[in-house]
Amino acid sequence: MEISNQSSVTEFIIMGFPNLQDFHTLFFILLLLIYLFTICGNVVIFTVIRSDARLHTPMYFFISILSFLEIWYTAATIPKMLSNLLRERKSISFTGCLLQTYFLHSLGATECYLLTAMAYDRYLAICNPLRYPAIMTSKMCIQLVAGCWICGLLGPMAEIILVSRLPFCGPNEIQHIFCDFPPLLTLACTDTSTNVLVDFIINACKILVTFLLILMSYLRIIRAILKIHTSKGQRKAFSTCSAHLTVVLIFFGSILFMYVRLTKSYSLDYDRALSVVYAVLTPFLNPIIYSLRNKEIKEALKRMIQKQKIFTNDTRPSTFF
């Protein structure tokens, strides 16, 4: 990714929450605990699914990929946020800022596409159960995941290239908690209408299209569930997609208000709060939603712990009397 511009600005200062300076130590501890839980929770889910043969199904394959993705998604922003909470000068280089923005949007886009693929998987499983095994094969799952990653990683390239060519010659204070396109564009000392238009079109297509596809899938899923005659069958069918639907509503609800809006009249604190929701809280809630509300994952985790205990007992040296 070639970065070349004619800026006099070589670094940016990330302002974070300037009105809450006295609570930075508390925020650091809280954010650190959230980050550690997010990493550990997603690693556990990924490991449990990949190691338990009973969970080698398309639905759990997608969940494991989502957990893997969340690990890197949080790594794009939270470590730097933790560092800034401990430093008086909260600086980031020009190149580092663009890289953070790129990974935030590329991994975020990958999550949009992956959640869409998961909705399609649930649609096929509930609405076309007889054809489901023939359609959602291992090859199809791998192709869908590969497509999500490729489209996600290539998506923000045009925006990054356009921003890298903007001149930044004035204030260098980013009124946000991390680097992102909207606060960066406000610092450019030239007309950014083209960048704003490109940013809006890409985000609208990426977020709205995927969200509408997910919405259509779930409307058909709900219609199919309502046709099931027994309440037990309805609960069982809906339980397989309720966790995914919860994640979709939290994630898309925040990024829609952040990136797909015609007015910019919201306060800076409003934007910062929304950023915390999709960059911190959503990855934090994923392990809770997919583990505490999923009986099969909890049972697989118990089996893995029991196997570990048996292995430990078998390898313990014997004592002779």
UniProtKB/TrEMBL annotation:
GO CC terms: plasma membrane
Domain G-protein coupled receptors family 1 profile: 41-290
Key word Protein biosynthesis present: no
GO MF assignments: G protein-coupled receptor activity; olfactory receptor activity
Protein name (database record): Olfactory receptor
The UniProt record lists the keyword Ubl conjugation: no
Pfam families registered for this protein in UniProt: 7tm_4
Organism: Pelusios castaneus (West African mud turtle)
Keywords: Cell membrane, Disulfide bond, G-protein coupled receptor, Glycoprotein, Membrane, Olfaction, Receptor, Sensory transduction, Transducer, Transmembrane, Transmembrane helix
